[in-house]
């Protein structure tokens, strides 16, 4: 088999950075009042800035597919002619602009410089970006493709705006119900961000500068054991199962806010760290590696709250990772879902700090139904 290398990494961030103080100017006030949970959630998640593909009045500035295409174009900004040599486009998102056509096809439609190439669209949430990457990696490693592009993008800001909450809040007040539904959604409003990232994967490293040899990519799902935790386009029933929007009546879709993204916060706290990072320990043992072999640890975090939980797990399980090896950009970019790991690696790759022979461990936990992806890279 061929080897496979990441030879270029690029990103695209829409508009200007949005501070914590400005957030509700873009997302609006629910029921005309500032959020009571905002300060608490932001204090725990540690995010200071994020990006939205919309203006303060809610007008969109980019589609998801446009942002992904712009990230792909940025891979070839120094060699624009090479974009026509791309022979695979593997695109992931948890927030496509439409149900059909596929997200990947829509991204390809925004790249007229390319030829008629293979396009795939892995679905999922945070792990989807890694699935897109693994498809590109395997295609190059098998010798089927020579210049494969993997990209991941998110555009969730439209479903975080207050106009997605107003009707149900009024209904809850009217019926004198406990507004737990609003809390489920309000919790996520202060975490999510828009943007896109892209990798160029080739069978040979760069002749000058650095490349990242892809040593391995491993994934694992615990959906056979655990009920859904984060969901959209469905209503969670008392028995833990999901009722599809297709099976909901029109009034249920509105009253239960079926098309909003929601999180079972209690289940998240119980499961997200101990399941996936126990699997990482198993993988590292199988491969004869320890955390001492890792020079950079890049975990995808939805909140800095989980940084301490992961660190605690590592210490308790005899696999400590010194804090100087950790890297995340959550504070400045927010949680960009499937694209977060691309944006973190882009900053490290283009920082000028990497030295040949160093190893980078990527870790992507996904709470949706508790899936995990891990990857080891070697600087060459």
Quickly list its features.
alpha+beta, Peroxisomal Thiolase, Chain A, domain 1, 12 helices, 380 residues, two-stranded antiparallel sheet, single chain, 2 domains
3D structure, described in words:
The chain has twelve helices and 15 strands. It is of the alpha+beta class and 380 residues long. Strands 5-4-6-7-1-8-15-14-13 form a nine-stranded mixed β-sheet, with helices on both faces. The chain is globular. The longest helix has 22 residues, at 265-286. It folds into two domains: 5-209, Peroxisomal Thiolase, Chain A, domain 1 (3-Layer(aba) Sandwich); 214-234 and 261-379, 3-Layer(aba) Sandwich (Peroxisomal Thiolase, Chain A, domain 1).
How is this structure best summarized?
The protein has 380 residues and is an alpha+beta fold. It contains twelve helices and 15 strands. The strands form four sheets. It has a nine-stranded mixed β-sheet with strand order 5-4-6-7-1-8-15-14-13, sandwiched between helices. It has a two-stranded antiparallel ribbon with strand order 2-3. Strands 9-12 form a two-stranded antiparallel sheet.
SSE layout:
Layout: E1 5-12, E2 18-19, H1 23-27, H2 38-45, E3 49-50, H3 64-75, E4 88-92, H4 103-109, E5 118-120, H5 128-141, E6 147-154, H6 166-175, H7 180-189, E7 195-202, E8 212-221, E9 230-231, E10 234-236, E11 242-244, H8 250-255, E12 262-263, H9 265-286, E13 296-299, H10 305-316, H11 330-333, H12 340-349, E14 359-366, E15 371-379
Parallel strand pairs: 4-5, 4-6, 13-14
Antiparallel strand pairs: 1-7, 1-8, 2-3, 6-7, 8-15, 9-12, 10-11, 14-15
Helix pairs in contact: 3-4
């Amino acid at each position: 088999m061929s080897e496979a290398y990441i030879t270029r990494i690029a990103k695209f961030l829409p508009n200007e950075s949005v501070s914590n103080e400005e957030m509700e100017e873009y997302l609006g006030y629910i029921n005309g009042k500032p959020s009571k949970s905002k300060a608490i959630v932001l204090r725990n998640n540690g995010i200071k800035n994020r990006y939205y593909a919309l203006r303060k009045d809610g007008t969109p500035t980019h589609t998801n597919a446009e942002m992904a295409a712009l990230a792909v174009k940025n891979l070839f900004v120094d060699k624009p002619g090479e974009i026509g040599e791309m022979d695979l486009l593997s695109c992931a998102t948890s927030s496509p602009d439409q149900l059909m056509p596929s997200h990947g096809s829509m991204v390809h439609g925004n790249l007229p410089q390319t030829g008629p190439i293979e396009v795939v669209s892995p679905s999922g949430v945070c792990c989807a970006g890694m699935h897109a990457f693994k498809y590109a990696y395997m295609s190059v490693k098998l010798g089927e493709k020579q210049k494969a592009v993997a990209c991941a993008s998110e555009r969730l800001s439209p479903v975080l705006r207050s106009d997605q909450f107003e009707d149900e809040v009024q209904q809850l007040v009217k019926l004198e119900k406990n507004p737990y539904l609003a809390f489920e959604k309000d919790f996520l409003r202060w975490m999510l961000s828009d943007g896109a990232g892209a990798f160029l994967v080739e069978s040979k490293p760069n002749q000058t500068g650095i490349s990242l040899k892809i040593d391995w990519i491993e994934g694992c799902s615990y959906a056979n054991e655990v009920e859904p935790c984060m969901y959209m386009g469905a209503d969670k029933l008392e028995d833990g199962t999901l009722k599809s929007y297709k099976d909901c009546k029109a009034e249920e879709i509105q009253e239960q806010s079926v098309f909003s993204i929601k999180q079972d916060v209690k289940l998240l706290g119980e499961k997200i760290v101990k399941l996936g990072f126990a699997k990482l320990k198993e993988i590292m043992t199988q491969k004869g590696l320890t955390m001492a072999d890792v020079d950079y640890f890049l975990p995808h975090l939805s909140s800095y709250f989980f940084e301490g939980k992961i660190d605690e797990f590592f210490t308790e399980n005899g696999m400590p990772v010194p804090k100087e090896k950790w890297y995340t950009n959550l504070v400045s970019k927010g949680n960009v879902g499937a694209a977060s790991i691309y944006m973190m690696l882009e900053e490290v790759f283009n920082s000028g700090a990497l030295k040949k022979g160093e190893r980078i461990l990527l870790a992507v936990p996904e709470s949706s139904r508790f899936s995990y992806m891990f990857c080891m890279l070697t600087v060459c």
